[in-house]
Amino acid sequence: MENETSLWNELTQPAILLAFVAALCTLAYTVINWKLLIESRKTRKQKITPQIIAFLKSSESHSVLALHIKNIGEGLAKNVKINTIKDHNIMQKDDYLISNAGIFKNGFNIFPPQYELRFHLDWWSKIKSGQEDGYVEVEILYEDIEGKKYTRSFELPFNQLTGQHYTNPPETYMGQIPYYLSEIDKKLKILSIEDKTPNSKN
Known about the structure:
The chain is α+β, with helices and mostly antiparallel strands. The protein folds into 3 domains: 1-48; 52-161, Mutm (Fpg) Protein, Chain: A, domain 2 (Sandwich), CATH 2.60.270; 168-192. Helix content is 40%, strand content 27%. It is elongated and about 125 Å long.
């Protein structure tokens, strides 16, 4: 009888061990699949989630301060509305407020990924002479393609961009184009004045 019991144990132990290993593999497979499902959902959400931000930036010539509205997300935004909490007169014009310009007044039905709008606010020379404490504040409302609503607020002080150093000519080719065009224009004006001056070639 003892021999039969010993033989039975020898036969069943490998089966129990295999069943335990199979159970562990099944558990690991389930956990991996669950993590992949979560990552897949996160990736899908990222692909459809818009992220519209507002920020200040100097023009390529560094002479004008501009307000930029950009969708830095991967998803398309729709029904975009912007509420101007702190308004500003564009380029010192009393009758031309940010709140009356484009998207601020009329909204935007479709705002694709990486799409960007730019609004010139003022000359840096004017800001530095009395408006360094100025700022603009906007509230951006929009939806993703599934209808989920988002609200973002941005307070943008002008003085956060002061004190920066720039090269002349600018480092980027986009900045170099207006710089060299301006230099050419200056040279042409000088030549034009010289041609009109009597005896300028004597």
